[in-house]
Amino acid sequence: NISQNNIHKIEDGAFIHTSHLEFLNLSVNQLQFLSSSMFDGLMNLTYHLLLARNKIYRINPSAFANLENLKVIDLSSNKLYTLNAMHAVFNMGSLRELHIKDNAICRFLSLDITGLVKKTFRADFFQGASSLADLDLFNNYISYESSKMLANPPFKFLRSLKKLAINSQGGNGLKYFPANFLDGLESIPETFTLTPTFQELDLSNNKLSSLNNSLFHSISKLKQLHLNRNGLKSLNFFLNANLSRLTLFRATENDIDVITEEQFQHFTFPSFPRSQAKQFHLYM
């Protein structure tokens, strides 16, 4: 642990004789550039490489090439404004957790030798990091100009992802949420914990064969749920799903073959005068 110093440079090969290291903390220093040979010798670095709160703005594409067993990198609170600066990280097949919050990463800024080029926050940036289970993109500048379908959804290759933090985006934030923005994410158990006031959710046209009822626990105010054209086998996710305010449910063109009493028994609607009776619309 050599965090909280004034280290502004690490010479190439500095760690060549420390092959036993499994954890390295370089947080809160003055590093600006990660070279191709800076971490040579750290072939057993497995658990954490902590680089948060430096001034890193550039990473050589081969900087992490020899860290074949590393599971966690924390690059939070640096100056990695562009997606090109992150390519070295996105190509790490062993990585399970990546923390890049508070970097001012933008949707379309990608700096190369020709200058500033528009480049969408898209799937191929994560193509080499398909083993990621935890991705922290909190407090950057990711945004979209509309809610239209994306040609290359950004998380398309992250099928192992279990946790995604993308809240608190600067600028206009995620004012527009593309319809297929979350395509590829097959298991995100805490997806809606930060959106308790959701009233309508449309997950149609995906390949969802099953859903866990815990997915809905934090969005109990949901009024409309659309699950059309998926591969759902049953409605068991309604059991204890805490969706008592639901008034519209659509699940057309699925593979549901049986509906049971238990699946709907928890829809306990409050008593209204007949003139104000609450209606529940079911489309299957």
Automatic annotation (TrEMBL):
The keyword Cell cycle does not apply. Keywords: Leucine-rich repeat, Repeat. InterPro entries: Leu-rich_rpt, Leu-rich_rpt_typical-subtyp, LRR_5, LRR_dom_sf, SLRP. The keyword Iron does not apply. PROSITE patterns: LRR. PANTHER family: AGAP008170-PA, INSULIN-LIKE GROWTH FACTOR-BINDING PROTEIN COMPLEX ACID LABILE SUBUNIT. This is Chaoptin.
